Amino acid sequence: MEWTQLELSKGKLRLRECLNRAGLTAHAFLAPEPAEKTDEIRSIVVVLFPYFAGEAPGNLSYYCRGLDYHKVTARYLEEAAKALQAVLGEDLVYHAYADTGPLADRYLALRAGLGWIGKNQMLIHPVWGSYCFISYLTLNAPLEADALAATAETTCMRCGRCVRSCPGGALTEDGAFRPERCRSSITQKTGELAPWEIQILQKDSLIFGCDVCQKVCPHNAGVPLTMIKEFREDLIASLSKADLQGVSRRQFAARYPDRAFTWRGPAVLRRNLELLLEEAGHGD
Length: 284
Ligand code: B12
Description:
Layout: H1 14-21, E1 43-50, H2 69-88, E2 94-97, H3 105-111, E3 116-117, E4 123-124, E5 132-139, H4 161-165, H5 183-188, H6 195-201, H7 212-215, H8 241-244, H9 249-255, H10 266-279
The structure holds cobalamin (B12).
């Protein structure tokens, strides 16, 4: 959706106008207008953070085994922005985002030449594969754009493995995506699941997130381990019944204050684990 098609509320126009003027398309789905008082967005720095830390077994998706990427990426970007400020001056206005910004992260990374979009919908980097988070800094300084990396010439192999392996049939040959059938989405859904959702959930063993379409992707074969210590050390690969039983939301947040699976709370994870144990015949 174009920004111009959005109904914009008074006094919150600036960032959207700027982005629109720059010819960027954004998605209404995403977060509300940021609160910063910036006059201009003149450039955007897009950064990938690789997170693959090996194939250790576990029931949590790779992306949430390390420290919470929202916090980690924000910390690194904040440091980068401060360094830029030291060079460009205190007038530099910046804002750092991962997940929560006003633009579609994958689209930005694509435009920045950092990779291509696979049939599995993922932004794929030629070295790090799709196991990388995307984050970006908006700046009011007109930095010169880097030349597009050679990655722009490479594309998804279109082997179709992700499409064939997707537990819910969320991915399609023509590149469309049905988010309601995405297993990752179902693992994050609150409340009671419909029978067809339970069927999809039970097609894999992760209780939070889904990695099937990434694990089968040939571009992810043999990717290097991440060099980012927050995604490499102190990993939590699994949560057990004991970790989840009789725990309130508050207790859960206190026990795992810095993890990307925490925000959903223990009830959803408990439900998923129970459904998976039931399927495996270990219900009690
Ligand atoms: C909501 C969300 C989800 C929802 C998806 C809902 C939906 N409708 O897409 C659910 C819960 C299903 C989900 C799952 C996952 N997510 Co998610 N998710 C997001 C979030 C917050 C918004 C996505 C969104 O707006 N989707 C709307 C569609 C339209 O946009 P898009 O898919 O991002 O990108 C599209 C455009 O780039 C467009 N496009 C492609 N080429 C071109 C060319 C042109 C010219 C144009 C105009 C557009 C265009 O096609 C892309 C694919 O549809 C983003 C962060 C963000 N703010 O962007 C993370 C994000 C996409 N998720 C991420 C991750 C890691 C995951 C999971 C791997 C987690 C997991 N292990 O379970 C799975 C992957 C599922 C999959 N195969 O896509 C990463 C992806 C990193 C990467 N390398 O691609 C992101 C970018 C978070 C981040 N900051 O790192 N996610």
